[in-house]
Amino acid sequence: MTSTLTAVVTTTACLVLHLTAAEQVASLPQVECPEKEGVQTYPHPELCDQFYLCSNGTLTLERCQNGLLFKGGHGATHHHCHYHWDVDCGNRALELIPLSSDGCEFQFGLYTDTAGACSGKYTRCEFGRAQLVECPPGLAFDVTIHRCQWPDQLEHIGCTAEQVTGFKCPSGIPSDPVSARFWPYPRFAIEGDCEKLISCVNGHPRIVSCGEDLVVDDSTLTCEEPELVPNCHYVQQRRRRSVRERRSDRTN
Ligand SMILES: *[C@@H]1O[C@H](CO)[C@@H](O)[C@H](O)[C@H]1NC(C)=O
């Protein structure tokens, strides 16, 4: 959708490109939004950090925050823009000048001050403010892909899956028949935890979460509806409480 509509914006927008930014905005009413309802975005034909935004037929020229670029689509970090490492600018000019502040190279970005070390923590910068974030349990931050990653994929920065997960996979097929059923990826329960289990991949433990609505059934080592797992009281209580809270939120 974006590509066909880009042509519409491109041909008309080219007329105003030689003007200054202020003049461009002033000139924008010459360019019409192809759709009169809803919110649509269109890449700027020449600049990777700018884009056109149509809100119910009103067109504006927008600029991504520092560290972000425009590619359109889902998963945007802030105001329709994505982290710069995630954007292929193609022929659009790319100008990335860091506006650094404490702990933040760009105003928006993900960083780690423990580069080259195995850590489940990283820094998320928004508007130049750094916030410490933790990876989901059992994962470590991979600075090269800016994402949390299985520690067995991060041996080059000193991660060992055993250290991060606190579990050591047995070598060979496990003696427990339920665990062995999942060979070559045998599973193990985590004592006292019915939301996650261990799955061994190439002999390395990975912590797998059942997700929001399911819990681990120890007797099968599968994720099930909590109703089917009566021994997981903790999660059931918490679920009941959160359902109650949601209900009272709605009535308030
Ligand atoms: C667009 O118009 C609809 C209907 O009038 C309104 O509900 C909605 O909030 C508007 N959206 C924007 C982005 O202005």
List keywords for this structure.
252 residues, chitin-binding, binds 2-acetamido-2-deoxy-beta-D-glucopyranose, alpha+beta, 15 strands, 5 helices, single chain, repeat, three-stranded antiparallel β-sheet
CATH class membership of the largest domain: Mainly Beta
Could you say which overall geometry the principal axes of the C-alpha atoms support?
Answer: elongated
- Which CATH architecture of the largest domain? Beta Complex
Distance between the termini: 41 Å
Count of domain modules = 3
Major beta-sheet overview: 3 strands, antiparallel
CATH topology of the largest domain: Antimicrobial Protein, Tachycitin, Chain A
Class inferred from helices and paired strands: alpha+beta
Which ligands, by name, code or SMILES, are bound?
A: 2-acetamido-2-deoxy-beta-D-glucopyranose
Tally of DSSP helical segments: 5
Low-confidence stretches: 1-29
Number of strands: 15
* Strand arrangement in the largest pleated sheet: 1-2-3
Instruction: Please give the share of residues in helix.
Output: 10-25%
The SSE order reads HHEEEEEEEEEEHHEEEEEH
Radius of gyration: 25 Å
Per DSSP, what share of the residues sits in E-state strands of 2 or more residues? 25-35%
Look at the structure and give the mean pLDDT: 83
